[in-house]
């Protein structure tokens, strides 16, 4: 077990890694597996946002079911990672605090670890009901190039070192729009879905 982690008596240790995943990429995947390893997690749920309300209106967002299929393809064969459609099933605008509350109710003895890149962590107090969120989970924060690790007051958190990858979904969408290659920035199965659905053109 990693230093600094304490395992509860009966529950599992579950990572909750939310995102728009439009599309998922190696930055997400390396983060998820390394956080699982560093914090001795039993699994990491890759939770696909249904309606990412902070992004709506700023750009076209791929339908949730297609983003879900890309995440399923991306984690296929990786035991510790699981694609999670909880937020899509719930429908409506996506509030992470609702997802954590649902996971807490489903597994009262589980330890929940919310996984975040440093850009997301810095904005946590703009999320819905941050004070409730603080009580539901610890955070695992990984540094993302260009975003120093800063966490709003009141959260319990661990910094986890992962290889820094200067990759974003934005860059991948732009590359597709420009007709450039996106190979190796995301798993082959997800690349195939981008092509099949003619996304980001
Ligand atoms: P976009 O460019 O569309 O915002 P993104 O690449 O930032 O996409 P998101 O779906 O917005 O991906 O991010 C989901 C989570 O993954 C956030 O916590 C974000 O900080 C984290 N994340 C995204 N890319 C990386 C990366 N390269 N390294 C570490 N964490 C990342
Ligand atoms: Mg982002």
Write up this protein:
There is one protein chain. This protein is of the alpha/beta class. It starts with 12 loop residues before the first strand and ends in a 5-residue tail after the last helix. It contains eight helices and six strands, in the order βαβαβααβααββαα. It has a six-stranded parallel β-sheet with strand order 3-2-1-4-5-6, sandwiched between helices. α2 (64-75) packs antiparallel against α8. The chain has helices at 26-38, 64-75, 86-90, 96-106, 118-122, 130-136, 169-177, 188-196, and strands at residues 13-19, 43-48, 81-84, 111-117, 138-142, 157-159. The chain has one domain (13-166): Rossmann fold. Helix content is 35%, strand content 16%.
Describe this protein with a few key phrases.
201 residues, alpha/beta, Rossmann fold, binds magnesium ion
Helix-strand blueprint:
Layout: E1 13-19, H1 26-38, E2 43-48, H2 64-75, E3 81-84, H3 86-90, H4 96-106, E4 111-117, H5 118-122, H6 130-136, E5 138-142, E6 157-159, H7 169-177, H8 188-196
Parallel strand pairs: 1-2, 1-4, 2-3, 4-5, 5-6
The chain binds adenosine-5'-triphosphate and magnesium ion.
Adenosine-5'-triphosphate binds at residues 19-22, 27-28, 31, 116-117, 119-120, 142, 144, 165, 167-170.
Number of domains: 1
Radius of gyration: 16 Å
Q: Helices and strands: which structural class? A: alpha/beta
Look at the structure and name the CATH superfamily. Answer: HUPs
The CATH topology name reads: Rossmann fold
Percent in helix: 25-40%
Strands side by side in the biggest sheet: 3-2-1-4-5-6
Tell me how many strands there are. 6
Series of H and E elements: EHEHEHHEHHEEHH
């Amino acid at each position: 077990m990693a230093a600094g982690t304490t395992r509860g008596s009966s529950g599992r240790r579950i990572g909750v890694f939310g995102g728009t995943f439009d599309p998922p990429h190696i930055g997400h995947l390396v983060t998820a597996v390394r956080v699982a390893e560093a914090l001795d997690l039993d699994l990491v749920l890759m939770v696909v946002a249904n309606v990412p309300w902070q992004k709506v209106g700023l750009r076209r967002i791929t339908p949730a079911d297609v983003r879900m299929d890309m995440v399923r393809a991306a984690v296929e064969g990786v035991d510790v990672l699981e694609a999670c459609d909880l937020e899509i099933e719930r429908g409506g605008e996506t509030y992470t605090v609702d997802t954590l509350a649902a996971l807490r109710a489903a597994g009262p003895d589980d330890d929940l670890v919310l996984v975040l890149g440093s850009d997301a962590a810095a904005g946590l107090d703009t999320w819905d009901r941050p004070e409730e969120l603080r009580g539901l989970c610890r955070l695992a924060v990984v540094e993302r190039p260009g975003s120093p690790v800063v966490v709003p007051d009141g959260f319990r958190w661990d910094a986890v070192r992962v290889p820094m990858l200067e990759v974003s979904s934005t860059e991948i969408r732009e590359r597709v729009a420009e007709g450039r290659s996106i190979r190796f920035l995301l798993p082959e199965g997800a690349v195939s879905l981008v092509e099949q659905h003619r996304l980001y053109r």
